[in-house]
């Protein structure tokens, strides 16, 4: 059991950070860079770049730009088209960064499936939420969605670093919610479209 514990903890942290990437791409990267810069979490040799000052400054600036850009009408919807592939990449990188002792292939295979899949699922759910908000409120409600996403990214990043088990449980709950409501929305749209033809 003692042998499995480090991998389990890495999985909890990785899934939590990947979930945070589903909300915002750069904020979790900034959180990990900050935490590793101050030595709060260890980084393997392949991910040493995450703990460097240049990465900390770059991800900090990118986080600020990303957060502010989501409050600009039209830009927020454009960013949603980019957010799913970028979140998938960020989620994969953050998940992989937590596994220092695995071989390259298992590390990245797991990262793409678990990290990338988690980030993509949550990013898709919130892209759908923003699209629904734009359609129903004319974009007025998008600021609320943007604030919720930023708060979610911040909360999940902090929990992943300091309380990874809670972050993991929340991430699983979020995935279930996105899949449940996504399926409901898909059925509703399918019913409406079949009524048109």
From TrEMBL:
Residues 12-181 form the DUF4126 domain. The keyword Disulfide bond does not apply. Pfam families: DUF4126. Keywords: Membrane, Transmembrane, Transmembrane helix. The chain crosses the membrane at residues 12-38, 50-72, 78-96, 161-182. InterPro entries: DUF4126. This is DUF4126 domain-containing protein. It comes from Epilithonimonas ginsengisoli. The lineage of its organism: Bacteria, Pseudomonadati, Bacteroidota, Flavobacteriia, Flavobacteriales.
């Amino acid at each position: 059991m003692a042998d499995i514990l480090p991998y389990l903890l890495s999985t909890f942290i990785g899934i939590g950070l990947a979930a945070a990437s589903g909300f915002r791409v750069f904020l979790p990267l900034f959180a990990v860079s900050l935490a590793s810069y101050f030595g709060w979490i260890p980084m393997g040799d392949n991910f040493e770049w995450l703990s460097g000052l240049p990465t900390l400054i770059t991800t900090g600036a990118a986080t600020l730009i990303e957060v502010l850009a989501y409050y600009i009408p039209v830009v927020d919807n454009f960013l949603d088209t980019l957010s799913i592939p970028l979140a998938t990449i960020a989620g994969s990188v953050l998940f992989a960064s937590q596994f220092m002792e695995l071989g390259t292939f298992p590390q990245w295979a797991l990262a793409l499936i678990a990290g990338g899949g988690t980030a993509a699922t949550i990013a898709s759910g919130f892209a759908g939420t923003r699209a629904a908000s734009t359609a129903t409120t004319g974009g007025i409600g998008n600021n609320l969605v943007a604030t919720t996403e930023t708060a979610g990214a911040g909360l999940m990043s902090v929990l992943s670093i300091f309380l990874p088990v809670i972050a993991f449980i929340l991430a699983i709950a979020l995935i279930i919610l996105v899949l449940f409501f996504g399926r409901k929305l898909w059925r509703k749209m399918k019913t409406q479209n079949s009524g048109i033809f």
